[in-house]
């Protein structure tokens, strides 16, 4: 069974909801978790919960990076920050993967310092697993969007490598033999979106290892035409935050539209629980988070606002990713394309 | 009363729905429309409708650009394309503004050829009017996102000018004394998003003419914190298409979530009309389209899938924009910031 290090101090509801999520997972699965952080505080939370002590250890870390802190300065000042200690545990082989709901910049920086980049990888990418429309039975209801914030701008070679890594993930994690890979762009034509995107399009179309379906547009992200969608971090991050904001705006727009119509008003009221569920889904709670691809070690980053069920799901996603050998699959795919 | 030239041949449902929209506007308003396109076909559609003939003229144009045609090649081959003829009518003062649901690239190119750029404007921008969350009474339920596709990449000076133009639009068209202007980015911190966005942030923060609220993220687009959101065309275009796809995905995600719950299922059924209405709203039908800012003449671009009500609304938006003197307001604002 994989051992998952969990940053107990990262996230808007840390350590309470993090510890609660791990306690839940300890009862429901055989996954072993190492809670990294302030031992007395973690133990105090554990004491209020039922959990399986044979599946949980605590690894003390005296410091924690706050959600609003500047990542570089925080990691410099706090040598014993839980995110750094967790990343070290994984780098040293004491755990198989790391889960954190903490400060994204600090997570990425700690991993960049402690993890080893897969040979041949230019830039690691944060890949968000998100729910999409399903066309046919057996299709994975989740798709992958990368990069969502490990980079800002990318060149064509970076984007091609994101496609290769995302493709390897989808093949192994989603059991999709030939994942459909799309390039996020402002139009369907191969020449759209400037030089970088046009060059990426050309290279992807020429790559036999990838089932490249061409450019996809904003509307295709939701509609699920592609199993893997590739873009630079600036674009992916804005789109991801937009996905997270969907439920809110639809609720508002619908309220605006239904003001005059009794039937709709009734429907809205009945649906309000459903809309909350949509918000929940789009907040990553139900599907586990964003794996950081391109390192020999694995981080699963979950949303800062994650509560216990999201943490438990992220732990399960991390364990499944380790068991499925996804990191090795990515390394092999990167090598194959380079050769 | 303003005279509005309407490209009768552009759009997925042209000329039928375009002519129907103009016929509707002719009965409901005193706006004078010039339908530009294939006269016999336009007249044949008009003959099936009730309309006020004193408010509608036809200006013949023999050619039309197809929705899938490459813009540059199409405009070269089709000298008498309806979009070019319509743009010329406006440039020559025979009409006050142009409305088209046609090929976006061809619209932008025809305007770039026929219209005059406002003195001092670096790049015109396509500005999408979209529905957002309303916090307080009197707040405009619509906000402005620009650029959504007239550019691909931009430098900091371009983005600052988009802010100035969008601010002038919101002040005049939405009667907002001090519109809140945000910069679309991947994080709230001023240094985020690379050199161009960091420089744009610094310049906007130093500009007294603008109430700059800093970086806004994807989730803020929907939540309506800003009256005007500025970004390069690649980013804006992807986000806009995403907005248009919202209703679909929410329907799907909600269906997925509600599968097991009778109450929700009932709510969904009652709401399905409402969701169609949301799709309708997000397809620009209800609020008029995307004005192209930065030219001395005005184009209002509407979605390719627009039907008659969307066309009628776009005609009203164009007429209101002309009456409000928005173009002059933008020109004055650009001059003021340059001085």
In short:
2 copies of one chain form a homodimer. With 339 residues, chain A is an alpha/beta fold.
Largest protein interface? Answer: A-B, 65 and 65 residues
Domain unit count of chain A: 2
**Radius of gyration of CA atoms of chain A, rounded to a whole number:** 20 Å
Distance between the termini of chain A: 34 Å
Secondary-structure element series of chain A: EHEHEHHEHEEHEHEHEHHEEHH
- Stated plainly, the CATH topology of the largest domain in chain A is called Isopropylmalate Dehydrogenase
Q: Count every helix of chain A, treating DSSP H or I runs of 4 or more residues as helices.
A: 12
Largest sheet of chain A: 11 strands, mixed
Second-tier CATH architecture of the largest domain in chain A: 3-Layer(aba) Sandwich
Shape of chain A: globular
The fraction of residues in strands of chain A falls at 15-25%
Tally of extended strands of chain A?
11
Mean pLDDT of chain A: 87
* Quaternary structure annotation: homodimer
Write out the CATH superfamily name of the largest domain in chain A.
Isopropylmalate Dehydrogenase
**Spans where pLDDT lies below 50 across 5 or more residues of chain A:** 256-265, 280-285
- Major sheet strand order of chain A: 3-2-1-4-11-10-5-6-9-7-8
Descriptive account of the structure:
The structure is a homodimer of 339-residue chains. With 339 residues, the first copy, chain A, is α/β, with parallel strands linked by helices. Chain A has 2 domains: 1-118 and 294-324, Isopropylmalate Dehydrogenase (3-Layer(aba) Sandwich); 122-287, Isopropylmalate Dehydrogenase, CATH 3.40.718.10. Chain A is built from 12 helices and 11 strands. Chain A has helices spanning 16-28, 39-46, 71-77, 82-91, 104-114, 156-173, 194-205, 218-223, 233-258, 262-282, 308-323, 326-338; strands at 3-7, 32-37, 56-60, 97-100, 125-131, 142-146, 180-184, 211-216, 228-230, 290-293, 298-301. In chain A, strands 3-2-1-4-11-10-5-6-9-7-8 form an 11-stranded mixed β-sheet, with helices on both faces. In chain A, helix 1 links the parallel strand 1 (3-7) and strand 2 (32-37). In chain A, helix 3 (71-77) packs across helix 5 (104-114). Chain A is globular and about 60 Å long. The model of chain A is unreliable at 256-265 and 280-285 (pLDDT under 50).
